[in-house]
């Protein structure tokens, strides 16, 4: 199976990774069967989805704990494990991020906090190293948390062998340059889908120049690109879909028309719209890694088919033209 490089780290993985935000549960996702979640992770690895992504904030540590349980049953050397730092609730900082399940979560990208985050993550995950460590959200004020200090902490962790690659999420081009100026940056994790393509213009040129990889989250645009959403689908008050521009009537209609126009391709490749979208998304940016969430083995198997879906060049060109036409 083809593997794609993760920046200049020397690490590589198939393009499809498994996201474990939902596995964390909490008010956002509801209760989960942890044993089923572990089985989902094991199924993912069996299917060749060897990059598993988590974060302390997912379920307020719970996702990391479940991933740690799954790792007990896997060959650690065959897994690319990523987690994050910079959001915590052990203490207050000057920057309140948001309230999660009644807990005030702060941004803290100081060296002290990052080193503490990693030590605690290593314990929950039951491992001696993290393959990719992302800073989850960036500092809004570098007079509080200087970027030099943040990058210095990451470089220290890499020198100690506790992390193997440096990542950052929710970035700007200037921040990417800053990380590379003060140390290293191997990969960024950003929202990217066929409907949300700011990465291509705002970040991709800088990433190409500096050899930084991209991992896309939310490639199915919160379910809009699965083929299961209609114009009549509604969501409860407070759902982020209600504020997502892609779910507004005009944009939603464009998305549904796009999927309807590819029905013949779903039949040709014996796949679902979601699998087709994942496969195309992976081709939109050279070397792109795509992160899809799952919390059951069935969901994993559904996502995994995109790994082996080989689009004909003409079909890929046609689909990309369709996408460009609504951008």
Automatic annotation (TrEMBL):
GO terms for molecular function: oxidoreductase activity. Residues 16-315 form the NADP-dependent oxidoreductase domain. One of its GO terms (cellular component) is cytosol. Keywords: Oxidoreductase. It comes from the Bacteria. Pfam families: Aldo_ket_red (PF00248). PANTHER family: NAD(P)-LINKED OXIDOREDUCTASE SUPERFAMILY PROTEIN, NADH-SPECIFIC METHYLGLYOXAL REDUCTASE-RELATED. This is Aldo/keto reductase.
